[in-house]
Amino acid sequence: MTTYRDAVQCLKRLRSRAGVGVLPGWVLAALLCCGLSGVARAQPGPELRLRVVGGLAGVSQFTRHEERFWSHDLAALSNGRYSASIVPFDRAGVPGAEMLNLIRLGVIPFGTALLSQVAVEAPELAAPDLAGLSPDMATLRKVVSSFRPLLEKTLHERYGVEVLALYVYPAQVVFCKKPLDQLSDLAGRRVRVSGASQADFVLALKGVPVVTEFAELMSNMNSDNTQCTITGAMSGNMLGLHKITGALYTMPITWGLAVFGANQEAWTRLPPPLKTLLKTELPKLEAAVWAESERETLEGVACNAGADSCTRGSKGAMSVVRPSDADDKRRRDIFGREVLGAWVQRCGAGCVQVWDQSIGPAMGLKAPAVK
């Protein structure tokens, strides 16, 4: 049976053969060399089984919600008529930056794409989770609500993707080995970041951003290649960061947004009752993931501090520092003066229009002009 890893290798060969960044239309037919189709296939009998690529492995959003819905709840809700198999994208051999193209081509009929990763190819999709934009979940909800219509339109028209849900991961906060009392203390420190926007934020504080994959985070901290790291409070706790760091600064730098979508052809071919069921149930799954991320943000902080309210993580003894009013003002200044401007310069004039037609009015902030 052909795997997603095989599909990715085929995609790379076809990209090389085509000599372009975005594959032309003939490639969809050529993908048959991989033995894959973008349409969910019916099994013998009345059951229709879907193939789904989900979010990040090992995190609660996947294990407690996505996996349970597709592996168990779908069959129960449809009285056994429909079912699905799901694999997290980081264990399926799927490059995150290629996810939208793989969904567009039908290699992955139903898949989850991290906006921070696909923004390498479509930088406007980074807009709702730029570093320093959303200091709390309420603001993030406001930002996402203002951006969602444009997101759905862009993915439908450019990639042929039907957006079915928009997930969020817990707040990405700062762990440091040495004491950290305010944002300015990051000056001169090597800080693990996961992307360009976080790097812009750290640079504005005169820190040294070090782009590091999540899987390499602990080895970098243990080797002292980085003295601080930006990651989720609970995921950091599960890695054991509370054992090698002493300060936890709770300002959300970013969050982590992921879109779950379907290849348009695969979606169109689904039986109407299944489409109705998914349109009814996936918003509930989305709401559950958001609620889980909000709870996990709070519990992650509690576990690292060693509070009694910690039930799912390991209790640490970290010093928890909450942002002052002065630091919140500095966050807003850095975002408006540095982060937003750097994103616009990378993204171009089209992103100025994207911002000013979506998030900008909601936040009362216009994008700077492209220089």
**CATH classification class of the largest domain:** Alpha Beta
Strand content bin: 15-25%
Low-confidence stretches: 17-46
Overall mean pLDDT score?
Answer: 89
Detailed description of the structure:
With 371 residues, this protein is α/β, with parallel strands linked by helices. It folds into two domains: 4-168 and 257-296, 3-Layer(aba) Sandwich (D-Maltodextrin-Binding Protein, domain 2), CATH 3.40.190; 172-255 and 306-363, Bacterial extracellular solute-binding protein, family 7 (D-Maltodextrin-Binding Protein, domain 2, 3-Layer(aba) Sandwich), CATH 3.40.190.170. 46% of the residues lie in helices and 17% in strands. It contains 15 helices and eleven strands. It has helices spanning 4-18, 27-30, 60-77, 99-104, 115-118, 137-159, 196-204, 217-222, 233-239, 241-244, 264-269, 272-305, 325-347, 349-356, 359-363, and strands spanning 48-54, 82-88, 110-114, 161-168, 172-176, 190-193, 208-211, 228-232, 247-254, 257-263, 319-321. It has a six-stranded mixed beta sheet, with helices on both faces. The chain has a five-stranded mixed beta sheet with strand order 2-1-3-10-4, with helices on both faces. α13 (325-347) packs across α14 (349-356).
Could you give a short description of this structure?
The protein contains 15 helices and eleven strands. It has 371 residues and is an alpha/beta fold.
Characteristic key phrases:
371 residues, alpha/beta, D-Maltodextrin-Binding Protein, domain 2, 2 domains, six-stranded mixed β-sheet, five-stranded mixed β-sheet, globular
